[in-house]
Amino acid sequence: MNNSCFEQFAPIAAIATNQQAAQVITSLTQDPNVTLWLPSSVESPGNAQYYDISLKEHLALIWEQHQAFVFCLAAGAVVRLIAPLLQHKAKDPAVVVIDAQGDYVISLCSGHQGKADLLAQVIATQIGATAIITGASYSLSLPALDTLGFIYGWRKGGGNWTEVMAAIAKQERIEVIQEAGSMLWQEHLPQQHPFYFGFTDTQAEAKPQARVWISPTRRKIAPKNDFPQVQWHPKVLWIGLGCERNTSRELIEQAINETCQTYHLATEAIAGIVSIDLKADETGIVEVCQRRNLIFKTFTAEQLNQVNVPTPSEVVKEEVGTPSVAEAAAIFASEARQNMVAQSKDFNNFRRKLAENAPALASKTTDRVASGKIEAKVEDKKAAAVTPDKLTLSKGGLKADDKATPAAAKDNLEKIAKE
Model-level pTM greater than 0.85? Predict the structure, then answer.
């Protein structure tokens, strides 16, 4: 396992154009995630790579092969070199510049999404220099909302990110609705921060200029809305799955996708799939987890027997030793406080749709935690069973804002839906 502090930025290209610059960044290139590039006229005692063409031409060749670039070169020269290569802040690699004496490390480009701000701080610590960060969020001691969730393993959703970040830079009021995920970040905000959390009775007086959703729910956000909104998706959904032996990956993925779409859940918020230990080698489930980089947990019948479920089945109990697989596994994995059977569907419908639309649609590739969790459960029983094949959805209690009653929260959600 690679435990390097540079692993999250890899692969990194370190660029020097003379012997002095090479010496400044030599210590960084001892890391396997960093490759030192030098012109062929410069010698280096380390394992450097060399280029014989101009640096501008060389950068064009290696630009898309690296997540980060570290230059020991004048900042103005770096700007001119990379300008033709820049596309969009969501795609551009991190660019960091170290001065010739190694005293300062400047985050030059892609500070937030490319993690150049963080990389500059890591390098500064490594070489005993001072990190220079010029972003608005950093100067205000605020978290960069467009990268906030990465450290917690959240997935970034859609929305008007540029407009929301601009509102934060202007220190305008930002409404944050957090329904799930770690809340530690709220505890480390400066006293005069622009955020207020949850729904309040004085929402009209607060006059928010933007909204941030932190939720497993996928909300439709108009691209050109006058009120900018964005969303993060914490990975809190657990798919409880019981199925016949040799159920195909395509069928499982279609069931998951359609259920999430029906209930407006983000597939990015899925933490993993859970089932009974008899399914530990089920090929279709294993393939889904590999394709989506999901955790796959299994529990014994004894463990699942401990869980109270809304729809137990004697038929299932006779087959596997527990009255529930899908529901019990999802509840057991997530410790859901509230369970609701939201949907039942005949799995043959999914099979028919899969056959009609072949080839199958391609699938999309401990701290204090808000207690809101939603667990989707997919359960596929034999067609001849007394209990029908079904697909169920379980939703845990949400407590992101302990001051808001369920009725008040519902009223506020209805108001927002009308905006």
Answer: no
